[in-house]
Specification:
Blueprint: H1 8-15, E1 24-32, E2 35-37, E3 43-45, H2 46-63, E4 67-73, E5 88-94, H3 97-104, H4 107-119, E6 120-128, H5 135-151
Antiparallel strand pairs: 1-5, 1-6, 2-3, 4-5
Helix pairs in contact: 2-4
Length: about 150
């Protein structure tokens, strides 16, 4: 199923009952269109169209406190259904969900969103929360690693 923007139901679920103050990362999985017709009737690649969008969107991410942690081209899918193919992956950090919401609700993003949609065949947007390990668990794991290293041949 091709999805570019969240449904009203998903957005309502996202906004309801969540902690808006803890840091999040947003994982973007992107499948770009082969070609896109832009304003003047010129045809460009989906990659070029998304690049034009992301140059302006990156500035907005920074203005809203976000930071791009990773951006790259997908070379190979080791574990994925054969029909699921992604072109690019982007991981963006936000100090909080509120910062992410500030970005997507800004007037500038409202202007940019149609350009994003035009470039994409389909996408996924996954909110990720940090998992914290206890110090005890980390110390136990480090201890066993040292023992394994010390006594291995």
């Amino acid at each position: 199923m091709n999805t570019i923007n969240p449904s009203k139901e998903k957005m309502a679920e996202f906004l309801k009952g969540r902690d808006n103050k803890r840091p999040i990362a947003v994982l973007n999985l992107l499948k770009l269109k082969e070609s896109v017709e832009i304003e003047n009737g010129k045809i460009i690649s989906g990659t070029e169209a998304y690049k034009r969008y992301s140059l302006r969107a990156t500035k907005l991410v920074w203005q809203c406190g976000g930071q791009i942690l990773w951006m790259g081209k997908v070379n190979f899918s080791l574990i994925a259904p054969p029909e699921e193919k992604w072109d690019q992956v982007i991981l963006i950090y936000y100090p909080s969900r509120a910062h992410f919401l500030q970005m997507i609700n800004s007037p500038i993003y409202s202007e940019l969103a149609p350009h994003r949609a035009a470039a994409l065949e389909t996408s996924r947007l996954l909110e990720i929360r940090q998992v914290k390990f206890s110090k005890l668990l980390l110390n136990v794991l480090a201890f066993f690693h040292r023992i394994k290293t010390r006594f291995s041949l």
